[in-house]
Structures are given as C-alpha cells and as structure tokens.
Specification:
four-stranded mixed β-sheet, alpha+beta, 175 residues, Beta Polymerase, domain 2, three-stranded antiparallel β-sheet, globular, Arc Repressor Mutant, subunit A
C-alpha cells in the first residue's frame, strides 16, 4: 500500500521508525545495522527528511542523533498513515472498542521500535473476555494481514508489575 506512494524502501523504513513512535531516536550507524542497508542510502534519506524539517537532529558526542519533529505540520497525518499501515486503526475499531471493560491497549514488540513485523504484540489492560477477544482478533488478522498476539493484565496487575518493556499506548478507554 504505502510502497506505491513512496518508492524508496529506505524512506519507508525511516518513516515507520520515527513516525509511529515519536519517542524513537537513532544514529546513522544504528540504522545501518537495523535496516541492513548501506550508510550512504540511509544518510541520503535522513538528510532529505531533515531538510524537509520532518526530522530534527542533534550532535551527541561525535554522532548525530535523529528524532521526529512533532511540530511539523504533517506529523499528525503521517503518524496516522503509519498507524493505518500497521493496522492499528482496525485494532482500535474492531477490537478495543468492543471488549467491554478494557482500560487501555499498548503496542509492544518490534513494531514499537519502528521495525516492520508480520506479528503485532498487544497488551490489554482491563477485565476482558479472552474467548471473545480471540474471535475479534481472528477477524482483525484477516483484514490487516498480520498475526496478533496479546497479553492481558488487570489494572492492579499492570500497576504492580510496573511493565517496563517498550510500549506505545494506542488506545485509552478512559478518555
């Protein structure tokens, strides 16, 4: 889908990396290792995105650290496109909004790091019917063409465990 609009695979990887989770930051060499691509191709795309003011950078030591520019006029729209690319809109509409006493949904795993992955890891916080969740997830998987794996915690368990893994809040039922 997104590949027809943006022909540079490197640019797509960078947009996924930075625009899904605006807390992601990276150095060129780290991206080279993560993407398995040449530093020149990555540097070229980073420079383009920085010149367009979509990415900010700062020099830390002798390395340049890149982060998304959240104040860019297109940030919200690009974030929305990236969320749709991963199927998060379907997860919210078809799962989160239908699970009753669900308090929040977090995305975990590789995708939080901005890495494309055929597996979505979700963390549900609340008191839900797991059997009904399995049925909803099975239907959503067919729509988004990704497998979904989930874990559930009660609010009390979630607070007690102080879940420290990388996570991205994608839905909050208290709003």
């Amino acid at each position: 889908m997104i590949e027809t609009l943006i022909t540079s695979k490197t640019r797509i990887k960078l947009l996924l990396k930075f625009f899904l989770n605006p807390d992601n930051a990276a150095y060129l060499r780290g991206l080279e290792t993560e993407f398995g691509e040449s530093s020149n191709a990555i540097r070229l795309e980073l420079n383009r995105l920085e010149k367009a003011n979509m990415l900010n950078s700062e020099v830390v030591g002798n390395r340049k650290l890149f982060k998304v520019n959240k104040s860019h006029p297109l940030f919200i729209e690009i974030n929305g496109i990236v969320r749709k690319y991963f199927g998060l809109d379907i997860i919210i509409d078809r799962i989160a909004c239908r699970l009753g006493n669900l308090r929040s949904v977090y995305l975990t795993g590789n995708i939080v790091q901005g890495k494309d992955d055929p597996l979505l890891d979700l963390l549900f916080v609340g008191d839900i019917d797991r059997n009904y969740a399995f049925k909803l997830i099975e239907k959503a998987e067919k729509i988004i063409n990704r497998k979904i794996r989930f874990t559930t915690y009660s609010e009390k368990e979630f607070k007690k465990l102080g879940f420290h893994h990388d996570k991205l809040l994608i839905w909050d039922g208290r709003q």
